[in-house]
């Protein structure tokens, strides 16, 4: 079912609008469920900084921000399905990231939309300053991060396929256009909204040759990612390495793991799984788990 992306300036009220939508969807499902089996199966998920356990200081550095976006993308992919409505209101200010999530939804043959919270930047700045001063909340964005995010914000454009349909909610609106969003995403004619995927987003069954290539490439990419992380984090032995699109992180041991050690573990994993025909995502998750088990056993 649909993916609803909430986008707007920092401190624009994205989470507030997302919670309004969350309550509306749940009430609508409860209202229609007794007479519509399709609606009764629907579940609603809300994904943002808080649900992912992320703090706003991830915007201090490009690497932390990239890892945070990967965490959101993974969380969305885990719950996105035919019977799930996903509301994501964090880190959707880059059009390339919105396009990535649009492709994920299209690959699942489910619709997506963007809700633009159109709060003026000056009002956002005032709200952010109040949040920073209020110790009873989780706070706003530090001034440097706030201005940086405003500068880099790429406003949704309803003329592009990944930002459409686009619903804009101005600051003075009491609620988003609930009924329009419901009709566009779920439908009111009793039929499920189905999106035909592009050929580029359809996962083709892997032949043996393709599988061995993906097995080799995926594991090699993870090893390179770990080596790169260790170089970028000197003196941080024992940290956790977030692998893009993997369900779990790699928990490094207390001592630095050398490239030969990683390659040896990788060869063992490939040898064990050469005869299988796993999906790329499954290979990634299994290799991360295999690495963690190997590090714990060492």
Structural summary, described in words:
With 298 residues, the protein is α/β, with parallel strands linked by helices. It folds into two domains: 3-186, Rossmann fold; 211-297, no CATH class. The protein is 49% helix and 11% strand. The protein has eleven helices and seven strands. The chain has a five-stranded parallel β-sheet, with helices on both faces. A two-stranded antiparallel sheet has the order 6-7. A hairpin with an 8-residue loop joins β6 and β7 (250-251). It is globular and about 60 Å long. The termini are far apart.
Q: Which structural traits does this protein have?
A:
P-loop_NTPase, nucleotide-binding, KTI12/PSTK, 7 strands, 49% helix, 2 domains, Rossmann fold, ATP binding, alpha/beta, 5-stranded parallel β-sheet, Chromatin associated protein kti12, two-stranded antiparallel ribbon, single chain
The largest sheet, given as strand count, sense and whether it forms a barrel, is:
5 strands, parallel
Mean pLDDT: 87
Number of extended strands: 7
Which geometry do the CA atoms define? globular
Strand sequence of the main sheet, in spatial order? 2-3-1-4-5
Organism: Diplodia corticola
InterPro entries: KTI12/PSTK, P-loop_NTPase
Protein name: Chromatin associated protein kti12
Family: Belongs to the KTI12 family.
């Amino acid at each position: 079912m649909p993916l609803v992306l909430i986008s707007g300036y920092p401190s624009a009220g994205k989470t507030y609008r997302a919670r309004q939508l969350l309550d509306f969807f749940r009430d609508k499902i409860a209202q229609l469920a007794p007479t519509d089996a399709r609606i009764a199966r629907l579940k609603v998920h809300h994904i943002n900084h808080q649900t992912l356990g992320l703090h706003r200081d991830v915007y201090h550095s490009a690497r932390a921000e990239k890892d945070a976006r990967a965490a959101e993308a993974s969380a969305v992919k885990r719950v996105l399905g035919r019977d799930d409505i996903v509301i994501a209101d964090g880190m959707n200010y880059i059009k390339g990231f919105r396009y990535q999530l649009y492709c994920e939804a299209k690959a699942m043959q489910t619709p997506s939309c963007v809700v633009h919270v159109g709060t003026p930047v000056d009002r956002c700045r005032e709200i952010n300053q109040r949040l920073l001063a209020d110790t009873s909340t989780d706070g706003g964005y530090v001034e440097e991060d706030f201005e940086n995010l405003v500068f880099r914000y790429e406003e949704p454009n309803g003329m592009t396929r990944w930002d459409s349909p686009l619903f804009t909610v101005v600051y003075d609106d009491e609620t988003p256009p609930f009924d329009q969003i419901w009709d566009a995403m779920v439908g009111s004619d009793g039929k499920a909204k189905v999106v035909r995927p592009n050929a580029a987003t359809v996962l083709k069954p892997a032949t043996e040759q393709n599988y061995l290539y993906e097995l080799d490439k995926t594991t090699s990419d993870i090893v390179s990612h770990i080596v790169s992380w260790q170089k970028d984090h000197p003196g941080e032995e024992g940290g956790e390495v977030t692998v893009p699109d993997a369900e779990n992180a790699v928990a490094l041991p207390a001592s630095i793991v050398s490239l030969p050690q990683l390659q040896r573990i990788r060869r063992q994993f490939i040898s064990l799984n050469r005869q299988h025909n796993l999906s790329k995502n499954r290979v990634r998750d299994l290799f991360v788990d295999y690495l963690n088990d190997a590090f714990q056993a060492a």
